[in-house]
């Protein structure tokens, strides 16, 4: 994972230097490594695909950016679906095992003290942990829902740029100079805003 982070940082630096090709090359190497290290619905994969999408957009290649944006969307939706399923299944299964564990621990210790007191304490702690995990997952679901919407808007923008390249040349009159620098900073900022929140499941 360290190599992925290093390559991503190098790609960001290259993008700041306006070296789109080097940036793109580093991001793609990073993605190639990351795909072997994480689950197919990892938020890190969505972020890296989105960064490549932005790099291609900055490099005036919206047609090539579209598949990366689509991949980021599909990864987000897969993760979203997994979390929704986990929340549903954890809500259904948490009470039954807890009650049966309590019934099994209902024996009396030799000192006359009930064995259920530690069991209840342990059960309370377990329920609290499950509750916290459940709340974290629900917050991540909310974040990913918003993120998916933002990515879909980006996809629509890219598709419009492909259909009407004149709009792109008016919006992005060149990659150099202050206009290009502002565009790169805006794209980088968008990426950080979209992917900085969350738990990186």
UniProtKB/TrEMBL annotation:
InterPro entries: NASP-like (IPR051730), Tetratricopeptide_SHNi-TPR_dom (IPR019544), TPR-like_helical_dom_sf (IPR011990). Gene3D superfamilies: Tetratricopeptide repeat domain. It comes from the Eukaryota. The keyword Repeat applies. Residues 90-118, 166-188 are annotated as: Disordered. It holds the Pfam family SHNi-TPR. One of its GO terms (cellular component) is nucleoplasm. The keyword Ribonucleoprotein does not apply. GO terms for molecular function: histone binding. Coiled coil: none annotated. One of its GO terms (biological process) is CENP-A containing chromatin assembly. Keywords: Repeat, TPR repeat. Residues 5-41 form the Tetratricopeptide SHNi-TPR domain. This is NUCLEAR AUTOANTIGENIC SPERM PROTEIN. It comes from Salix purpurea (Purple osier willow).
């Amino acid at each position: 994972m360290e190599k992925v982070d290093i390559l991503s940082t190098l790609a960001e630096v290259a993008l700041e230097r306006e070296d789109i090709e080097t940036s793109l090359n580093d991001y793609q190497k990073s993605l190639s490594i990351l795909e072997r290290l994480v689950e197919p619905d990892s938020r890190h994969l969505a972020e890296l695909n989105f960064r490549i999408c932005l790099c291609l957009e900055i490099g005036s290649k919206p047609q090539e950016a579209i598949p990366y944006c689509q991949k980021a969307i599909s990864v987000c939706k897969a993760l979203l679906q997994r979390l929704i399923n986990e929340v549903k299944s954890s809500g259904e299964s948490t009470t039954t095992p807890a009650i049966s564990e309590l019934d099994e621990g209902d024996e009396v210790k030799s000192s006359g003290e009930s064995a259920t007191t530690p069991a209840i304490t342990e059960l309370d702690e377990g329920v609290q942990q499950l509750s916290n995990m459940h709340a974290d997952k629900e917050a991540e679901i909310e974040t990913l829902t918003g993120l998916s919407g933002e990515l879909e808007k980006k996809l629509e923008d890219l598709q419009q740029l492909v259909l009407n390249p004149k709009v792109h040349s008016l919006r992005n009159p060149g990659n150099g100079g202050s206009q290009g620098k502002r565009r790169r900073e805006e794209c980088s900022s968008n990426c950080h805003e979209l992917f900085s929140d969350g738990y990186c499941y």
